[in-house]
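#structure-requests
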Amino acid sequence: MRVQSCTRTHSRLARMTRGQSRSHGEVHRSERAGWLRAAVLGADDGIVSTASLMIGVAASSASKEAVLVAGVAGLVAGAMSMAVGEYVSVSSQRDTELADIATEKRELVTEPQAELNELAAIYVRRGLDKDLAMKVAEQLSKRDRLAAHMRDELGIDPGALARPMQAALVSAASFGTFAFVPIAGLLVGPAADRMAVVAAVSLLSLATLGALGGRLGGAPMFRGALRVAAGGLLAMGATAAIGRLFGVVQG
C-alpha cells in the first residue's frame, strides 16, 4: 500500500510539474525593443517637430492657412525623413551584424578548436570551472555551433537581427500619425488661441505617449510622461521665440 501511495504521489507531482512548465510563460520587454524604439521615436518626433514648426510660423503672425501648410509639409517631410534615417541607420547595424557572423563562420571552419576554447573561456569568465565550461561549450556546439558563438561571443540573438524595413515603416507610420495631432488642434481651435490650442493638445499627447512608453518599457509612467513633455515644451518655446522675433523684424 505504501508503494502504491508513493507511486500515486510521484505521478501527481510529475503532472503538476508538467502543468507548471506548460503554463509558465515569461514576457520579456527587451523582445519588443526594436519596433518599440522606432515607434516611440517616430511618434515623439512627429508631435514635437510638427507642433514646433507650426507654433514658430504662427508666432510670426502668419495666417491660419500658412500655419496649416507648414504643418502638412512638416508631416510629409518628417515621415519621409524618419523612414530614410531609420532605414539607413538600422541597415548599417545589420551590415555590421552580418559581417561579424560571416567572420565567425569562417573561423569555425578554419579554426574549430580555437573557437571551442574561446567559447569555453567565455563561460569560465562567467563563473564556471574549466571542465564544466568545456563540457557546456561542447554540448552547445554539437547542437548549433554558430548560434552559440553568435549569442555568447558576439552578443547577437540569432532570432533578433536588425530589421531595417520594419524600423523604417514603423517610424514613418508613427511619425505621420502623431504629427496630425497639432494639425487637428489648429483645425478645431479658435483662431485667437490657435498657438495655445496646438501647444496644449501636443503637450497632452506627448505626456500620454511618454507614460505609455514607460508602461511598455517597464519604467515609471510619471517619469516617462514628464521627460517627454518637458522636451516638447522646450522645443515649442524656442521656435515660438524665433517666430516672434522674425515676425517683429519683418513687421
